[in-house]
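### Sample
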Amino acid sequence: MRDARIEQPFADGTYAFRLGYGQISELQEKCDCGPMRLLSRLQSGDWNIEDVFETIRLGLIGGGMEPKEALKLAGRYVKERPPLENQPLALAIVFAGLAGAPDEPVGE
């Protein structure tokens, strides 16, 4: 089974990010759109800053981080940084959540 977990450099280290069903459901509510629409917004440049913040925060939680710590880390390294800096990471997290991580074998 595909886990959709990716490890990416972020903030002060390398972190695990994963959007499982629960995180995708919450992300839909926070961003007021479905996951494919969010993916499209992140790809096309039609995203808003909450799309990036919430994707990273929920990706950290799905990756195993405690919610309070994820909120703190995302607040510090997303909200206090230039918005374009974290858009590629948000895009990678959503893509992996929908399609699986690039290095995961299909069908296992």
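The radius of gyration is 13 Å. This sample (Tail tube GTA-gp10-like protein) is used throughout the tutorial notebook.
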